[in-house]
Amino acid sequence: MGLAEIGTKLRAAEAAAGRAAGSVTLIAVSKVQPLERVVAVLEQGHRVFGENYVQEAAGKWPDLRAQFGKVELHMIGPLQTNKAKVAVDLFDAIHTVDRPSLAEKLARLAQERGRCPQLFVQVNTGEEPQKAGVLPAEVDAFLVTCRGMDLPIAGLMCIPPEGEDSTPHFAALAGMAARNGLAGLSMGMSGDFEAAVAAGATHVRVGSAIFGARSYA
Ligand SMILES: *Cc1c(COP(=O)(O)O)cnc(C)c1O
Questions:
Q1: Nearest residue CA, atom 13 of ligand 1?
Q2: What are phi and psi of 162, to 5 degrees?
């Protein structure tokens, strides 16, 4: 596929859902991709990227930003509390706020800096034991906790269970966001971003369909 084709499909999904063209942010997920593929997408003019690992992102993006100018960076992987400081200085958004200890750390860093990345709370909609995220039954209380710390929560994020239909998970996440007055919905990946847009996604996170398959070798 590639960036142009995904862009076309995204515009079509927006139109089909009655959403304005360009209203969904396309996050190009560049984790573990060879640098030349990332550069190729930058050269096509794309400026919104997602990364899963703080260390990998910190090793790559300062140089790329120096070369290509302003790039909006989204942290979409699990965030260890001891990497929160580096993450806050590197990323424009963090999609994986999932526990009080991390929220506290982010609140402290935000206070020191007088600014905070845009934040999303990750929800474990499939209630999978191995997966990060707040359980659906705990979302409302966790949001109250975050708001009590003055954290700017923009919305919710989910990764539906593999091999399952994503649609009910997207609908559930949209319901949780709506009842908590949150506008942001980070959901949808290479295989299901069109369904996510239909369900109200504001941010889709697309990796392999833009860059090609990841190799972890
Ligand atoms: C890797 C990753 C993606 C991108 O996955 P693709 O299937 O390659 O599009 C999206 N979201 C998260 C949280 C990821 O870890």
A1: 76
A2: -65, 140
Return the domain boundaries, the chain: 3-211
Closest CA to 87 of 118, 121, 122: 118
Q: How do residues 64-115 score in pLDDT, each as one tens digit?
A: 999 999 999 999 999 999 999 999 999 999 999 999 999 999 999 999 999 9
CA 14 to ligand 1 center in whole angstroms: 20
User: In this structure, is the dihedral angle defined by the CA atoms of residues 90, 159, 141 and 155, taken in order, positive or negative?
Assistant: positive
Tell me the per-residue pLDDT of 20-53, one tens digit each, with 9 for 90 and over.
999 999 999 999 999 999 999 999 999 999 999 9
Contacting residues for 13 by C-beta, under 8 A, at least 6 apart: 24, 193, 194, 197, 198
Taking the centre of ligand 1 as the mean of its atom positions, its distance from the CA of residue 163, in whole angstroms, is 14
Ligand 1 atom with minimal separation from the 193 CA: 9
CATH for 3-211, among 3.40.50.300, 1.20.210.10, 1.10.357.160, 3.20.20.10? 3.20.20.10
Give the C-alpha separation, 133 to 122, whole Å. Answer: 5
**Which ligand 1 atom lies nearest to the CA of residue 157?**
13
Question: Mutation test of ligand 1: which of 31, 76, 122, 193 has the most ligand atoms closer than 8 Å to its C-beta?
Answer: 76
